[in-house]
Structure formats: C-alpha cells, structure tokens
C-alpha cells in the first residue's frame, strides 16, 4: 500500500519507564495495512525545528489504532514525549518493506527465533503477534535489566522468552548474540528475525549465514526523506546499494554486506 501523510490524533502518550515511552494514535488506514517491520515517519513540530521527521517502528496496529514505543534520545523524541492526548501528529506511513511472515507449516517443528537488542523489541512485538501460532522463541538483550522492555507483551502472546544483559542484572550474563550462539549449537531454528543495533545484527548475520539459516534483519539508519529519494540511508548489498527506508528496513541475512 502507498504510504499516506495524515494528521493523526494522539490517544495516549505515557512513560513506560526511564526514558522509554509508549504512544498510541488513531489511523484506520495505517492500522489496516501495516506489516510488522514497517515504520512511520513523524514530524514532531509544526515549526522549523527539528525539521526532519523521526522514523519510528510500528509496534502494534489494530482496530484503527497504531502503537509506537520510543526512547528519548535527543530533541525530536523529547518534543514527542511532551505531546498530549487529543493533539495531532503529522505522520507518514506505513513506510518501507516489513517482515515476510512465514506460514506455520514452513517451520516443520523447528522454532522461529526473534532476537531483539534494546529498542529492537518495538517491531518484534508486532511480528510476534503475527507469528503467535508458531509460538516463537524470543531473545531480548540489553545493557541492564532496566532496558529490557516488552517482556509482558511477548509472554501474553505465548512466546518463550530468554533474556540477556551485559551486566548480568537479568537473565544470561553477556550479549544476546552469545546466548543465540548457545541455542544455535543445540538446535537449528526454522527462521530468525532480528532488530537491534548494527553490531548485534552483524553478529546475527554472521551466525545465520554460517549455519545456513534464513533470516530477516531490520536495520536502522539515519534518514532524511524516508521515501527512497535522497539516498541518505543507502546500505551496501550483494545487489548494489539499497535504501533502508524504501527497500528495507528489513533485509535478508545473506544479502547485506557489512
Ligand atoms: C526504521 C527505523 C525504525 C526505528 N524505530 C524506532 C523505534 O521503534 N523506537 C525508537 O525509540 N527509535 C526508533 N528508531 C530510532 C529513532 O528514529 C531515533 O532514535 C530518533 O530519530 C532520534 O531522534 P532525536 O531527535 O530524539 O535524536 P537526535 O540524536 O537529536 O536526532 C538527530 C538526527 O539523527 C537521527 N537519528 C538519531 N538516532 C537515530 C537512529 N538510531 N536511527 C535513525 N536515525 C537516528 C534523527 O532522526 C535525527 O534526524 C528507528 C529508526 C529507524 C531508521
Ligand atoms: S532517507 Fe532518503 S533515501 Fe532513505
């Protein structure tokens, strides 16, 4: 579906914990057509600054409502956190190519594994909802337990959950990719879906390529137009440069050149 620019009414905008926020807005069109892994591009002010839209993954979409979760990083997300229910947001979406959902029969008894690093949980909750019949295994990694998000949502969807923190404050002590390696050595997953920091995705790509496992990886890049026009978000692939905003953000594990 072609993305649309809409004025979306904010339903709620609440702090989850620390610098993490949850915002819900009305959009029948985006809610109806969104695929997990797609994102919206939000203009946070009507004024001149910050000028660029902020890309944020679609975290949930149902019954005319779209959910996002975001971390306050700088000016754009700080302004966003000040928005009140009833205000309108200038949103373009749904943007990009999302995850291709496997059919339950494709799993052949093996698990789909979802691997999230930090805010990478945002699109993976939406994906877990689409894959819930396959009862995926979800691995979430973060620096400390304070940055582990969305565990309740994944559990409510019937997903098995394993956590990893760099400081050992929750779950496995170490990187989520170290945890993934241990799991890989025990059994081969049907397919892997991942979203998170660049270095984490690179490590996931190396492992899935070594073990010849299909994987879909959602990348983050700084964006300007968000529509494939400025080439500001181009990444190198085996088929030449591709834009994260239009060709991605989801790419197959084997096509990316790191
Ligand atoms: C496809 C996609 C999906 C994303 N989904 C989410 C999400 O669900 N939740 C969430 O919290 N964040 C998400 N991000 C990151 C989010 O876009 C940035 O954190 C946000 O733009 C920061 O804006 P800022 O003005 O607060 O920070 P600043 O650092 O002040 O931003 C300055 C500029 O850098 C850009 N920028 C900064 N960090 C990033 C980043 N990590 N990725 C891309 N551009 C960045 C900003 O858009 C802006 O143009 C996503 C990014 C992409 C590309
Ligand atoms: S942001 Fe302009 S091409 Fe992707």
Explain this structure to me?
With 258 residues, the protein is α/β, with parallel strands linked by helices. The protein has two domains: 4-95, Translation factors (Elongation Factor Tu (Ef-tu), domain 3); 104-252, 3-Layer(aba) Sandwich (Rossmann fold). The chain is 21% helix and 34% strand. It has six helices and 16 strands. The strands form three sheets. A seven-stranded antiparallel sheet has the order 4-3-7-1-2-6-5. The chain has a seven-stranded mixed sheet with strand order 11-10-9-8-12-13-16, sandwiched between helices. Strands 14-15 form a two-stranded antiparallel ribbon. Helix 5 packs parallel to helix 6 (198-210). The protein is globular, with a radius of gyration of 18 Å. The relative contact order is 0.14. The mean pLDDT is 95. FE2/S2 (inorganic) cluster (FES) binds next to loops.
CATH second-level architecture of the largest domain: 3-Layer(aba) Sandwich
Major sheet characteristics: 7 strands, antiparallel
Number of helices: 6
Gross morphology? globular
The unique ligands bound to this protein are: flavin-adenine dinucleotide, FE2/S2 (inorganic) cluster
Order of helices and strands: EEHEEEEHEEHEHEEHEHEEEE
Low-confidence runs (pLDDT<50, min 5 residues)? none
Into which percentage range does the β-strand content fall? 25-35%
CATH class membership of the largest domain: Alpha Beta
**Span from first to last CA?**
30 Å
CATH superfamily descriptor of the largest domain: Nucleotide-binding domain of ferredoxin-NADP reductase (FNR) module
């Amino acid at each position: 579906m072609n993305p649309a620019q809409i004025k979306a009414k904010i339903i709620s905008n609440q702090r989850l914990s620390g610098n993490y926020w949850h915002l819900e807005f009305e959009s029948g069109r985006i809610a109806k057509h969104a695929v997990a892994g797609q994102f919206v591009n939000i203009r946070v002010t009507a004024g001149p600054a910050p000028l660029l839209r902020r890309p944020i993954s679609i975290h949930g979409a149902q019954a005319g409502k779209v959910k996002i979760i975001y971390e306050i990083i700088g000016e754009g997300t700080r302004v966003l956190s000040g928005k009140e229910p009833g205000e309108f947001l200038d949103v373009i979406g749904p943007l990009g190519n999302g995850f291709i959902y496997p059919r339950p029969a494709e799993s052949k008894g093996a698990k789909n594994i979802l691997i999230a690093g930090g805010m990478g949980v945002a699109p993976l909750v939406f994906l877990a909802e689409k894959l819930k019949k396959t009862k995926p295994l979800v691995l979430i990694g973060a620096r400390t337990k304070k940055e582990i998000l969305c565990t309740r949502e994944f559990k409510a969807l019937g997903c098995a959950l394993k956590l990893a923190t760099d400081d050992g404050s929750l779950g496995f002590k170490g990187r989520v990719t170290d945890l993934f390696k241990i799991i890989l050595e025990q059994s081969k997953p049907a397919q892997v879906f991942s979203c998170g920091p660049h270095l984490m995705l690179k490590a996931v790509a190396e492992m899935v390529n070594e073990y010849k496992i299909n994987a879909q990886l959602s990348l983050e890049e700084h964006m300007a137009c968000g529509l494939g026009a400025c080439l500001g978000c181009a990444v190198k692939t085996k088929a030449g440069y591709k834009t994260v905003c239009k060709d991605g953000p989801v790419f197959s594990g084997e096509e990316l050149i790191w």
